Amino acid sequence: MPSTPLADAKPYHHGDLRQALLSAAWALLEEGGLDAVTIRAVARRSGVSHAAPHHHFSSKGELVEAMVVEGFEWLTDELTRAWDAHADPLEALDATGAAYIRFARERRAVFQLLNRPELRRAPGGPDAAEQAGLRAFEVLARGIERCQEAGRIPPGDSRPWTLLAWSGVHGLAMLLDSGLLDAFGGTDDDYTRLLIQGLHQGLVARGQWGSSADVPG
Predict the structure, then answer these.
(1) How far apart are CA 85 and CA 105, in angstroms?
(2) Among 9-13, 159-163, 179-183, which is the least confidently predicted range?
(3) Cα(28)–Cα(37) distance, rounded to whole angstroms?
(4) Which of 34, 44, 79, 163 sits at a 20 to 30 Å CA gap from 156?
(5) pLDDT of 97-110, one tens digit each?
């Protein structure tokens, strides 16, 4: 079971120092934002010397990148569990979208960190964070393909449908995070249901379509 950013970081005594440092970093992020996450603060929170973290992270940038990778791993796990809980592919896809929004709301600091592209490494270099993000995205992409195979979404190129679904759930998550929907009085669940209903109008096949041109607009 992976550590969670909501858990209290405890002083490190023995075992996995790298994971202890990450747990301390998540706790500091929750308490004071990204500015509070420094190598020195993480060492102090973990109860180790200021030099000890450098065995695993040579800079704050490396530490934050490791946090982003771990955050995407948590997201991938949540999406996968949501998908695996349903036999019907369309129900599984709905649950996966709802899980994405729920993750963004319940792990707000994690979600916000995952949406900081300036923290990625330079283009062309090894980017573990980008690869971790792609693994989360692939849960949705494979779900769209499964729905196509089952005849629940029109056949053909899966990328437009994947983009539609991803844009929908990510856009709603961002709107909820920013508070822009607060004035309308709905709950997170209300907006999630509305979004899924709307996506069904664009995604779901109501018959056998011979080509993309046969799909109603």
Answers:
(1) 21
(2) 9-13
(3) 6
(4) 79
(5) 999 999 999 999 99
| CB 88, CB 96: distance < 8 Å | no
Tokens of 57: 């992270």
Q: Hey, how many other C-beta atoms are within 10 angstroms of the C-beta on 92?
A: 18
Q: Is the distance from CB of 100 to CB of 171 less than 8 angstroms? A: no
Cα 143 to Cα 55: distance, rounded to the nearest angstrom: 40
Which two three-digit tokens encode residue 61? 């940038």
SS3 175: helix
As given in the structure block, the two tokens for residue 170 are: 């990510």
pLDDT at 58: 85
What are 171's two structure tokens? 């856009």
| Cα–Cα distance for residue pair 205/215, rounded to 1 Å | 8
The answer to whether 173 and 105 have CB atoms below 8 angstroms apart is: yes
Query: pTM of the predicted model, to two decimals?
Result: 0.83
Contact 170, 120 (CB under 8 A): no
Domains of the chain (ranges; CATH) run 1-57 (1.10.10), 59-205 (1.10.357.10)
d(CA 170, CA 167): 5
Burial of 146 (0-12, 13-18, 19+ CB in 10 A): middle
